[in-house]
Design a protein that fits this description.
Blueprint: H1 7-15, H2 20-52, E1 56-59, H3 65-77, E2 82-84, H4 87-90, H5 94-107, E3 110-115, H6 124-138, E4 146-151, H7 162-165, E5 168-171, H8 175-183
Parallel strand pairs: 1-2, 1-3, 3-4, 4-5
Length: about 180
């Protein structure tokens, strides 16, 4: 569980004659607890990936997690090993998050960019994910990799960035018809 810091109390403590070291100790405890929790989350994820493997990276904005979990379950039920960066990873901080996501993308041969809004594919996290993957394809690092989009019917594929527009696309309503065939 997270230890929260009561800032005003810490400042009062730190400014008293005897409280400075107590205040520093409390801050250190809180920070080290958070760091331990974060490295625990990262280690858990790495272990899961090592034990289970991963072959499809699902990239989406957190607003689309409900849709993404449906896609994740469908892929898993059909023999794939998808990866979805959910809320637990988002807590680890941008630097560790970026490094961890880079590791996962590196081992995936497929990526699905899922969006219910065209703006979502251009948010910083999602853009970084599919850009990395496209770059791996373009540089020959992943010659047989497949990148697809799964979009809600309201999203016009022509509004997406060029790197995604020319990829195979499915809608959230019909992906169960052909997505598995395309990925196999």
């Amino acid at each position: 569980s997270m230890i929260s810091i009561d800032g005003e109390r810490i400042i009062d403590m730190a400014s008293s004659d005897i409280g400075y070291s107590s205040a520093m100790l409390e801050i250190w405890k809180s920070v080290s607890t958070r760091d331990a929790r974060i490295s625990g989350i990262i280690e858990d994820i790495r272990n899961k990936i090592r034990e289970r493997g991963v072959d499809i990276f699902i990239s989406c904005k957190s607003q689309d997690y409900a849709l993404a979990h449906g896609l994740y379950d469908y892929l898993e039920q059909n023999g794939f090993k998808p990866f979805l960066a959910d809320i637990s990873i988002k807590e680890v901080g941008i630097d560790q998050y970026t490094a961890l996501i880079g590791e996962v993308i590196d081992i995936c041969q497929n990526m699905i960019v899922l969006a219910s809004n065209p703006d979502y594919v251009e948010t910083p996290y999602v853009t970084a994910e599919w850009h990395t993957f496209v770059n791996d394809i373009n540089t020959g690092h992943k010659p047989n990799a497949k990148l697809v989009t799964v979009l809600t019917p309201n999203v016009d594929i022509h509004t997406l960035p060029a790197w995604l527009r020319d990829k195979q696309s499915f809608t959230t309503e019909n992906y169960k018809d052909d997505l598995l065939d395309f990925l196999k």
